[in-house]
Amino acid sequence: MDSGSVAWMLMASALVLFMTPGLAFFYGGLVRGKNVVSTVMYSFVSMGVVSVVWVLWGYSLAFGEGGQFIGNFDFLGFKDVSSDPEDGAMLFAIFQMMFAIITPALITGAIAERFKFTTYLVFLVAWITFVYAPIAHWVWAEGGWLFEMGALDFAGGTVVHINAGIAAVVAAWLVGKRRGVDRGVEPHNVPFVILGAGILWFGWFGFNAGSGLAADGTAISAFLVTNTAAAMALVVWVILGHIHTGKMSAVGAATGAVAGLVAITPASGFVGPMGAIAIGLGAGVLTFYAVRIRHKFGFDDALEVMAVHGIGGIWGALATGIFAIGGIGLIDGDATVLGYNAVAVLATIAYSFIVTFVILKILDVIPGLGLRANDADEDAGLDIALHGERAYVGDGAD
């Protein structure tokens, strides 16, 4: 790698890491004031736990040669991961670490305000090991079965977003509904939500434009289409919100922008600006109505992880096969990638659902763990009950 690409990839890695505090603000603003610290900590602690797991064995399982389904132990403790910039191995491992950090943090939006923090720490280790690392190997590692098949996921539609969205459904289902939310929960701090979405949008340029692993034309194009899809989905959410409610919601605008970012992620290295417009439009419509449908069923995916990341990721993966340019997308007359990506979507859904279910079921029966905080702690708020701290003193604490 030339020095310019090395500098860009170091910056892109930092941008992706910055997304996790952005997610913490985004999620933290959406919950009640008594659960802000616990919600923020779900994301922030992932930066510590997953970083350690990634260095010790996570990277090796995801990107070791291994076989079609999982890596091997050649890179335990980053053994033989060269820091030589011409090789780029350690730089790639660092960049991929940041993806691994944010993915389980995304899941926590579905279980906010009721999940035990100690259990979450164990879940982080198990989920990265048994769910994230294998799927990353399938899709991104040479020798992985979806990689060799020809499925395209430029920056994480399957590995990150569908994976997290499906895991979120399982977690929300097993942990159950929050207490006292039958009439919904009003976000306690809308400026936090907007700030978090803005940080996510900013960091996403590293997420997508960095995934080509070079400072080149692909990075420039990925940067443009990332911004374009986010902008289009934001506009769609604002318009649809006004049609249905007569109001233009700031939270809706933030959610729409994130949905557009999710959807363009797998396609960002393969589509042009007009493809990004189409993907952003589709993401806005699909995720907006997915949220409304979820509300009708009363399923307590607290912060709409499945609607935004699951549905947005599925649409993005399929849209990659539709709008990819250069003779490989459906609009250019070739349905092959669309078919491969459909297989990748189904495989990710099935594997993430089953293994996440098994992990959580085991954690729920281990003495001293369990999934859910007790009723008294949930009523008092997890900030004081589990962390001994308040985000606010006074009226904002409620």
The percent range for helix content is: 55-70%
Q: N- to C-terminal separation? A: 52 Å
Largest sheet: none
- Provide the low-confidence segments as ranges: none
The CATH H-level superfamily is Ammonium transporter AmtB like domains
Mean pLDDT across the residues is: 96
Number of domains: 1
CATH class: Mainly Alpha
- Secondary structure category: mainly alpha
What is the number of helical segments per DSSP (H or I, 4+ residues)?
Answer: 14
Globally, the shape reads: globular
Rg from alpha-carbon coordinates:
20 Å
* Count of DSSP strands: 0
Strand content: under 5%
Run of helices and strands: HHHHHHHHHHHHHH
The CATH topology name reads: Ammonium transporter fold
CATH architecture: Orthogonal Bundle
Description:
- With 398 residues, the protein is mainly alpha-helical.
- The chain has a single domain (3-397), classed as Ammonium transporter fold (Orthogonal Bundle), CATH 1.10.3430.
- The protein contains 14 helices and no strands.
- α7 packs antiparallel against α8 (217-245).
- The mean pLDDT is 96.
